[in-house]
Amino acid sequence: MTDATTEPAEPTPSSRVSGPLRFGANYTPTRGWFHHWLDFDIGEVRADLESIAALGLDHVRVFPLWPVFQPNRTLIRPSAVEQLRRLVDTAAACGLDVAVDGVQGHLSGVDFLPAWTRTWQRRNLFTDPDAISGVEAYLRTLAAALADRPNFLGMTVGNEVNQFSGDPHPDPDRVDPSGAAAWLDRMLKACEDSAPHRLHLHAEDDKVWYLDGHPFTPEHAVGRGAATTVHSWVFNGTAQRHGPTGAATLHHAEYLVELATAWAPDPRRPVWLQEVGAPRPHVPPRSAAHFAEATVRNVATCANVWGVTWWCSHDVDRALADFPELEYDLGLLTVDREVKPAGRRLARIVEELRSHPPAPAPRGLALAFDPGDPATAPRRYTCAPGGPVFEAWARLADGGARPALVRADRAADPDHLRSRGITEVVTPDEVLP
Fold first, then answer.
1. 263 shares its domain with 386
2. Has residue 277 been placed in a domain?
3. In whole numbers, what is the pLDDT of the chain averaged over residues?
4. What is the Cα–Cα distance from 242 to 345, expressed in whole angstroms?
5. Enclosing domain of residue 377
6. Phi-psi bin for 330: left (phi > 0), alpha (psi -120 to 50), beta?
7. Residue 8: is its pLDDT beyond 80?
8. Confidence check: pLDDT of 16 > 60
């Protein structure tokens, strides 16, 4: 297995991403939610995608359900793969690029794992050789099926698959950081081998940045794949502590982008805000449009953000039972494809930022943080909501600053500071009373 402390190879120039800021949505089908793969209707998919494109968005992130596509370890259903190809082609006709998540995995509070990984055939997703080879074959198949599609952006290994690896999951597949690194390397290689030079990456929730002892680490996030992803959800204690319109809430996504930049070996590495949304009741409906505008404008000040992909395109139909309450109303559009206030506001901001791209904000002031050993980051809690780094950064943002973040072991390196335009470094103790 790859040692977690080993620096992976830098991405090749062909895997770098550049260009104008991208805006998209995580596609949630209006008819049947992600269960639509069981009753696939390309007409309904087309209507959904047309309603997304009408907002001025340029891409969608889509989610094959893993148990539907690979119900047996050695059976990847050709008809399901063909449905995915048809969806991608339909998106192209609507003017949309498509990023595809592989291992689904975990969506909206629901786990979707095939029977060959659970109960009587229990296999650890990250360490069992048969499970690893099964996932690898699945990712290779999906990537190869889409490699010739011009609007295929690339594969994400899976949606927040890291949450299976430890607490608080009720039935975790335990792995250590070196095992997580080896698993990611193998899965990303499968994607790259099958569809070279696309935007292949991996995506975790904020445990990677905030939870001490979590086996998926910040170094994994910034050192593997063509870009770093961040998922910004303010129900993690941010909105509870600071309210729906507090600076920490409205700047949370910006903070995560800057935190990822501070961890990266190359500060120019692109960061994709792959999920962000306005969850009830933490952001009440009357505040959702303001939250969307402030979040996007704040993220647009970051120098290396690749794009913003809103969660989610359409609401979840309330005819479907047992979702957490906050999951039903996150859409930019209703299940009848009517644009909601947040959707109208986002469409307006996207049009403005496309026609007048903002210059990145200078970030001469940097807040130093010390996570401990960079390989395992045993003091991630300091950067989490309520931690001294998070709260100090939020206080600076509330005062009108656009602070950067810098790891303590780099804070005295003049070359690193110069490369990022940092001219002043402060500590949390100097900011907080």
1. no
2. yes
3. 94
4. 23
5. 365-431
6. alpha
7. no
8. no
